[in-house]
Specification:
This protein is α/β, with parallel strands linked by helices. The chain has a single domain (29-276), classed as Rossmann fold (3-Layer(aba) Sandwich). It has helices spanning 5-9, 38-49, 65-74, 89-103, 126-154, 183-203, 230-237, 248-259, and strands at 29-32, 53-58, 79-83, 108-111, 165-170, 208-215, 270-273. A 7-stranded parallel beta sheet has the order 3-2-1-4-5-6-7, with helices on both faces. Helix 2 (38-49) packs parallel to helix 3 and helix 2 (38-49) crosses helix 8 (248-259). Bound molecules: nicotinamide-adenine-dinucleotide. Nicotinamide-adenine-dinucleotide is lined by residues 33-34, 36-40, 59-61, 85-87, 112-115, 135, 139, 170, 172, 215, 217-218, 220-223.
Length: 287
């Protein structure tokens, strides 16, 4: 049995530097969807700390904005909260209209909003199927389409980036790992994968980059029951060769990098940030 070194060392929570000196995203505007909690919140703060202006989209939980807005402004960017349902076309268009009105254009979209509605397959209602597809897949389509329209209109602004715009889709390891009891969710993320790659192929000539981040198990409200008790955590770690549950900062760091020119030649790729969850962990001792 491999020893879990993180248990022994009381491994510190992965945190982001509070205000990096190197403001890689200075002068750029980022829209982050579903950003009042979890991964989206961490990405919005990290974009702000890297110097971007941030539109913090949320559907509920606006109390989080009371701390997020001043924190982003402390680091030199501006931040605005905007309530909208990403599965509704007119509301998505309103997010982009607000961003352009406040900041002139949009440079970065982070398609993060998502949810689960779990059920055994033969008990899954059409409403559960439809809700998850509407938010996780159609929501990402609506936001990406609006972003591409804006990026094509604005073109490359050399003073801020060598790309006309960047889109980051928050997908999941379940874009490739089947997931019993979560068929709607896995189908939505599988859809995000080929949507993202097809957009990348079509829009690359316009200097538009789109990539996905595929988180493994990250501690957020979406999956609290999977990590909040020692028993649950022990079960979860069986699926994670790196033997620690992910932190939202693990994802936020990659998002900032994907939004920056440091990753300029990366397009149409899914980056798995999962501690090795996709490595068929069962085969470490069996097979
Ligand atoms: P979360 O529940 O904290 O975040 C999801 C956010 O989306 C919430 O703030 C929620 O209010 C928002 N949202 C839901 N429906 C919306 C809508 N119609 N319009 C706008 N916003 C809406 O959970 P999270 O883990 O931070 O999830 C963020 C993303 O990461 C999701 O796409 C999720 O599928 C993905 N993900 C998470 C994990 C994980 O382990 N936490 C793993 C893989 C993928």
């Amino acid at each position: 049995m491999v020893k879990n070194i993180y248990e022994d060392q009381n491994y510190p929570e992965a945190v982001l530097p509070s205000c990096p000196i190197d403001k890689k995203l200075k002068g750029q505007t980022a829209i982050v969807t579903g950003a009042s909690s979890g991964i989206g919140q961490s990405i919005a703060l990290a974009m702000g700390r890297a110097g971007a202006n941030v539109i913090i989209n949320y559907i509920s939980g606006d109390e989080a904005l009371k701390e997020m807005v001043p924190e982003i402004e402390r680091c030199g960017g501006k931040a605005i909260g905007f309530q909208a349902d990403v599965s509704k076309e007119d509301q998505v268009q309103a997010i982009f209209a607000k961003a352009c009105e406040e900041f002139g254009t949009v440079d970065i979209l982070v398609n993060n909003a998502g949810l689960q509605q779990d059920a055994a397959f033969d008990e899954m209602t059409l409403a559960q199927w439809q809700k998850v597809i509407d938010v996780n897949l159609t929501g990402q389509f609506l936001c990406a389409r609006e972003a591409v329209r804006e990026f094509k209109k604005s073109g490359v602004k050399k003073e801020v980036s060598c790309a006309a715009g960047k889109i980051i889709c928050v997908s999941s390891v379940h874009e490739v790992i089947p997931w019993a009891g979560h068929v709607n969710y896995a189908a939505s993320k599988g859809g995000v994968m080929l949507m993202m790659k097809s957009i990348a192929q079509e829009c690359a000539p316009f200097r538009i980059r789109i990539n996905s981040i595929c988180p493994g198990a990250i501690k957020t409200p979406i999956n609290t029951e999977a990590w909040s008790t020692p028993e649950a955590q022990k079960e979860l770690l069986k699926l994670i060769p790196y033997q620690r549950v992910g932190e939202t900062a693990d994802i936020a760091r990659v998002a900032v990098w994907l939004a920056s020119d440091d990753s300029d030649y990366i397009n149409g790729t899914s980056i798995f940030v999962d501690g090795g969850m996709c490595l068929y962990p069962g085969f470490a001792t069996g097979g």
